[in-house]
Amino acid sequence: MEIALDLLSWALLLVGGFFAIAGGIGVVRLPDFYTRLHASGVTDTGAAYFILAGLMIQGGLSIITVKLVLIGFFMFFSNPTSTYSLAAAAHRSGMAPLDGAGGPNKPEPVEKSLAEPIEPIEPTPTKPGGAPPSQP
Amino acid sequence: MMTSQHLILRVVSKILIPLILLFALYVQFHGESGPGGGFQAGVIFAAAFILYALVFGPENTRRVAPEWALSTLMATGILLYLGTGAASFLFGANFLEYGVLGADFVAGQLLGIFLVELGVGITVAAVMITIYLAFAERQG
To answer: How far apart are CA B18 and CA B6, in angstroms?
Structure first.
């Protein structure tokens, strides 16, 4: 029983370590911002959760496992939010993702999109009865 | 601030800010017997305010952390630290020899380190929030 739990725990830790290494290589090797963000997202979610699960099995039913669960809860909210926030900021400031041939998907000059006022991605919900937003 | 944007950021930060404050208090009051202490707790406490200021803007943060309150808290923390140190004089001990403050030596040590760390935490949190808001509110 002890051996089986140790084996399971170490298997989870090794899988988490593999994801972390793969994410690290991806951040260095992938060509543009969005694909690198994808690689770092693997590190944030896959690697972190596998390592936490492996450590929880090592910790057993104790206060350590409770703390690890709380860390996992925190990461469950914070890491996808930071990834989303980075991607949304890049998209909003006009960074175009690469297409299959390795060129930018939308040939949009960055200087122009940066000079323009930032517009919200979603239109502002209007109150019922209120005037519709004026479209330019 | 454009309130129609950052929906996910606003919702998630509303979930996380109370937990960050709670964790700061844990680090503060667990600091004698575990990793942590006044400085770390103060920084974590300030990080919750800085996250709020990042998402909701410095103007809204000033409503919960106005200038006079932060200045008062900075001075209060230092006064708590110095007062704990100076209280040892009244019992004939040296500065910050707070073992004499309690009924016995251990109780005095616990009380003294608690007050000192509390003072450090209050000052660090107030200073960190002040530094961030000073940069965020700079015009031009």
So the answer is: 19
- The answer to whether the CB atoms of B16 and A78 lie below 8 A apart is yes
ipTM comes to: 0.70
Domain count for chain A, please give it: 1
Question: In the predicted model, is pLDDT for residue B92 greater than 70?
Answer: yes
Contacts of A50 (CB under 8 A, 6+ apart): A12, A13, A15, A16, A19
> Which residues make beta-bridge pairs with A104?
A98
Contact between B73 and B125 (Cβ < 8 Å): yes
Answer whether A122 sits within 8 Å of B4, measured CB to CB.
yes
DSSP output for B54-93: HHH-HHHHHHHS-HHHHHHHHHHHHHHHHHHHHHHHHTT-
Q: Return d(Cα A23, Cα A17) in angstroms, integer.
A: 10
Mean pLDDT for B15-43 is: 88
**Residue A115 located in a structural domain:** no
Percent of chain B whose predicted confidence (pLDDT) is above 90: 52
CB burial class (10 A; 0-12, 13-18, 19+) of residue B67? exposed
* Pairwise CB contact (< 8 Å): A85 & B8: yes
A104 three-class SS: strand
pLDDT of residue A3 exceeding 80, the answer is: yes
User: Which residue range(s) make up the domain with A79?
Assistant: 2-93
Lowest mean pLDDT among A77-86, A101-110, A120-129, B59-68: A120-129
